Recover the amino acids of this structure.
DNA sequence: GAATCAATTCGAGAGTTATCGAAATGTCGA
DNA sequence: TCGACATTTCGATAACTCTCGAATTGATTC
């Protein structure tokens, strides 16, 4: 729906792709809400895609609110939502957090970008 | 005024200190505002402490708003403010961004914390 | 088709925050 | 002490967002 710039990478495994300014703002805003962060943690912790019911069990929020947060995380590109009939499954989109982290670390003087 | 948990580290140089949940929320909220992020970038980019006048030149905001954002960044622990008479100087507090970045990366499955 | 369950959308209330102009505080030099 | 300048605080407005219950959509089963 939105991004098609991903996964086309040659050899080196862990090189994080750059995130645009706009997407970075989206991601940071998504992470800034404590509940959403906790939800993301739950998704990350579970090895397999997380069902909404499990997510609800972990967070004391209504279904409407959960739906809202899921959409925020998805819009930010932090998670993938696999819609399978009646159920939806949430999984972490790998690389996004790493890219953000790399961008943040790059601001620090110690990690001089010149090498 | 707030944190006294810092700098007590034995040997290994770059090991980032953990951030509490509350502080992480503060930091992420501080970073989530585009203007604030840009301000932080300016501070980081400048090698030496940045004067408020330079900050204002870089950002199209009023003095009141700038003051507000500075306080947010300071409260989050992202910057240090050296108050020197009439002028204030902003500098990046090293290690905080790195700690946050490390915490975020740790959520990704690739960097299995089990080793 | 009707009932049931999962998830979303709608509408609204409460709380938070970004922003500014105006006023206040603090500092320096004359 | 006075005036000029830097920064903060105050007060207020507008915009945003978290949250929920109720209504809706969509899929499955009977």
């Amino acid at each position: 729906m939105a991004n098609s710039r991903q996964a086309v990478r040659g050899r080196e495994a862990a090189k994080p792709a750059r995130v645009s300014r706009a997407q970075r703002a989206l991601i940071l805003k998504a992470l800034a809400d404590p509940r959403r962060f906790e939800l993301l943690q739950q998704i990350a912790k579970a090895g397999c895609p997380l069902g909404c019911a499990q997510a609800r069990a972990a967070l004391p929020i209504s279904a409407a609110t959960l739906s809202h947060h899921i959409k925020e995380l998805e819009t930010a590109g932090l998670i993938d939502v696999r819609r399978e009939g009646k159920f939806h499954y949430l999984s972490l989109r790998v690389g996004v957090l790493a890219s953000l982290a790399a961008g943040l670390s790059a601001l620090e003087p110690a990690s001089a970008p010149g090498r």
Residues 33, 35, 61-62, 64-65, 68-69, 85-87 of chain A lie near DNA strand D (CB under 10 Å from a C1'). Chain A touches chain B at residues 14, 21, 24-25, 28-29, 31-32, 34, 37, 40-41, 44, 47, 92, 94-95, 97-98, 100-102, 104-105, 107-111 (CB under 8 Å). Helices of chain A lie at 21-32, 34-45, 52-58, 63-75, 96-105. The beta strands of chain A are 50-51, 79-84, 87-92.
